Input
Amino acid sequence: MEELVFGSFHFRLTASRNLIGEYFNNHGNTILTESANFANSLENSSSLFEAEYITSWLEGNKPYSYRMRIERIPNTNAFNVLWTTIRNNTPVFRGKAALLEENTIYGYYSGETFIPEH
Output
Protein backbone atom coordinates (compact mmCIF):
# COMPACT_ATOMS: atom_id res chain seq x y z
CA MET A 1 0.00 0.00 0.00
CA GLU A 2 1.33 3.41 -0.94
CA GLU A 3 1.51 6.13 1.69
CA LEU A 4 -0.04 9.55 1.36
CA VAL A 5 2.54 12.31 1.25
CA PHE A 6 1.72 15.86 2.31
CA GLY A 7 3.82 18.91 2.98
CA SER A 8 4.35 22.59 2.37
CA PHE A 9 6.39 24.72 -0.01
CA HIS A 10 7.27 28.24 -1.02
CA PHE A 11 8.47 29.63 -4.35
CA ARG A 12 10.07 32.95 -5.21
CA LEU A 13 9.58 34.25 -8.75
CA THR A 14 12.80 35.42 -10.43
CA ALA A 15 13.13 38.20 -13.01
CA SER A 16 13.28 35.54 -15.75
CA ARG A 17 9.99 33.95 -14.50
CA ASN A 18 11.69 30.87 -13.06
CA LEU A 19 10.88 29.71 -9.52
CA ILE A 20 13.27 28.99 -6.65
CA GLY A 21 11.91 27.39 -3.52
CA GLU A 22 11.97 24.94 -0.66
CA TYR A 23 9.64 22.22 0.62
CA PHE A 24 9.27 19.62 3.33
CA ASN A 25 6.81 16.80 3.96
CA ASN A 26 5.62 14.22 6.48
CA HIS A 27 8.30 11.69 5.47
CA GLY A 28 11.38 13.60 6.56
CA ASN A 29 12.76 16.24 8.87
CA THR A 30 14.79 17.98 6.19
CA ILE A 31 13.89 21.10 4.23
CA LEU A 32 14.84 20.50 0.59
CA THR A 33 15.15 22.75 -2.46
CA GLU A 34 12.99 22.73 -5.58
CA SER A 35 13.44 24.87 -8.65
CA ALA A 36 11.24 25.31 -11.69
CA ASN A 37 12.04 26.59 -15.16
CA PHE A 38 9.35 28.65 -16.90
CA ALA A 39 7.91 26.69 -19.86
CA ASN A 40 4.69 28.36 -21.10
CA SER A 41 2.33 31.17 -20.19
CA LEU A 42 -1.29 30.27 -19.53
CA GLU A 43 -3.99 31.81 -21.68
CA ASN A 44 -5.68 34.84 -20.05
CA SER A 45 -3.33 34.72 -17.05
CA SER A 46 -3.70 37.49 -14.49
CA SER A 47 -0.51 36.80 -12.51
CA LEU A 48 3.12 36.21 -13.44
CA PHE A 49 2.98 33.00 -11.37
CA GLU A 50 0.29 31.55 -13.65
CA ALA A 51 2.23 29.33 -16.03
CA GLU A 52 3.52 25.88 -16.82
CA TYR A 53 6.97 24.99 -15.49
CA ILE A 54 9.39 22.09 -15.56
CA THR A 55 10.31 21.55 -11.93
CA SER A 56 13.07 19.45 -10.39
CA TRP A 57 14.54 18.43 -7.06
CA LEU A 58 16.80 15.82 -5.46
CA GLU A 59 15.59 13.23 -2.98
CA GLY A 60 18.13 10.84 -1.54
CA ASN A 61 20.64 11.82 -4.27
CA LYS A 62 18.11 10.87 -6.96
CA PRO A 63 16.83 13.59 -9.34
CA TYR A 64 13.11 14.05 -10.05
CA SER A 65 11.55 16.21 -12.77
CA TYR A 66 7.87 16.95 -13.32
CA ARG A 67 5.63 19.38 -15.13
CA MET A 68 4.01 21.91 -12.77
CA ARG A 69 1.01 24.09 -13.57
CA ILE A 70 0.05 27.07 -11.42
CA GLU A 71 -3.40 28.59 -12.03
CA ARG A 72 -4.91 31.51 -10.16
CA ILE A 73 -8.23 30.90 -8.42
CA PRO A 74 -10.49 33.66 -9.84
CA ASN A 75 -11.00 36.79 -7.73
CA THR A 76 -8.47 35.69 -5.08
CA ASN A 77 -4.76 35.82 -4.32
CA ALA A 78 -4.73 32.01 -4.23
CA PHE A 79 -3.57 29.42 -6.75
CA ASN A 80 -4.14 25.77 -7.63
CA VAL A 81 -0.88 23.90 -8.20
CA LEU A 82 -0.60 20.59 -10.06
CA TRP A 83 2.54 18.48 -10.52
CA THR A 84 2.29 15.88 -13.32
CA THR A 85 4.60 13.48 -15.09
CA ILE A 86 6.33 15.02 -18.08
CA ARG A 87 5.66 12.09 -20.41
CA ASN A 88 1.89 11.62 -20.05
CA ASN A 89 0.65 14.33 -17.63
CA THR A 90 -0.35 11.85 -14.91
CA PRO A 91 -1.07 13.80 -11.68
CA VAL A 92 1.52 13.25 -8.94
CA PHE A 93 0.84 16.04 -6.42
CA ARG A 94 -1.91 18.65 -6.02
CA GLY A 95 -1.75 21.74 -3.88
CA LYS A 96 -2.93 25.23 -3.14
CA ALA A 97 -0.85 28.34 -2.64
CA ALA A 98 -1.38 31.94 -1.59
CA LEU A 99 0.43 35.11 -2.53
CA LEU A 100 2.70 36.01 0.40
CA GLU A 101 4.49 38.95 -1.22
CA GLU A 102 4.61 40.33 -4.73
CA ASN A 103 7.08 37.66 -5.86
CA THR A 104 6.52 34.84 -3.32
CA ILE A 105 3.84 32.18 -2.93
CA TYR A 106 3.53 29.58 -0.19
CA GLY A 107 1.26 26.61 0.11
CA TYR A 108 0.69 22.94 0.77
CA TYR A 109 0.55 19.82 -1.37
CA SER A 110 -0.40 16.16 -1.16
CA GLY A 111 -0.17 13.11 -3.35
CA GLU A 112 -1.15 9.47 -3.34
CA THR A 113 2.37 8.15 -3.76
CA PHE A 114 5.35 8.52 -1.51
CA ILE A 115 8.72 9.19 -3.12
CA PRO A 116 11.43 8.20 -0.62
CA GLU A 117 13.46 11.23 0.37
CA HIS A 118 16.24 9.86 2.56
